[in-house]
Amino acid sequence: MPAATFTFTGTGVRWLGELGPDNGGIARVFLDGAFMTEVETYAPSLDPGHRNIVDAEHFKATGLADASHTLTIEVTGRQNPAAVRATVIVNVFDVVTSGTRRQETGPGITYTAGWALGNKDHP
């Protein structure tokens, strides 16, 4: 399965991505190799002029040891039945402690085969 893996140092991290009817894929989230949760990126359109929320918070972890950590977002290939497609989008990883914001092409982020870069909906 396609995955995005982010290695960071800090006491917290957030994954921000699209939420809406167009990209309703389901992802599995792992932190330091441990399964944390499944995230569904589908939501009905909240604003007719803007179908998707670009930087919705999909996952947040705080209170981590101030050390190196690895966050992995794994695409399952499943989707909400009402979604247009099973796409999962990673727009930003925020390292909570340091306040460092990493865009999808930032250092420390790697992607496996099958992951598409270059989302056209960036603000």
Write a concise keyword list for the protein shown above:
123 residues, mainly beta, Jelly Rolls, five-stranded antiparallel β-sheet, four-stranded antiparallel β-sheet, 9 strands
What does this structure look like?
With 123 residues, the protein is mainly beta. The protein has a single domain, classed as Galactose-binding domain-like (Jelly Rolls, Sandwich). The protein has strands spanning 3-10, 13-19, 25-31, 34-40, 53-61, 67-79, 92-95, 101-103, 109-111. Strands 4-3-6-1-9 form a five-stranded antiparallel beta sheet, with no helix packed on it. Strands 5-2-7-8 form a four-stranded antiparallel beta sheet, with no helix packed on it.
First-last Cα distance: 28 Å
The quaternary organization reads as single chain
The rough form would be described as globular
| Rg computed from alpha carbons, rounded to a whole number of angstroms | 14 Å
User: DSSP strand (E) fraction?
Assistant: over 45%
CATH class: Mainly Beta
The CATH topology turns out to be Jelly Rolls
Q: Work out the helicity level.
A: under 10%
Identify the strand order in the major beta sheet. 4-3-6-1-9
Q: Summarize model confidence as the mean pLDDT.
A: 84
The total count of helices amounts to 0
Query: CATH H level: which superfamily?
Result: Galactose-binding domain-like
Largest beta-sheet characterization: 5 strands, antiparallel
Structural class label: mainly beta
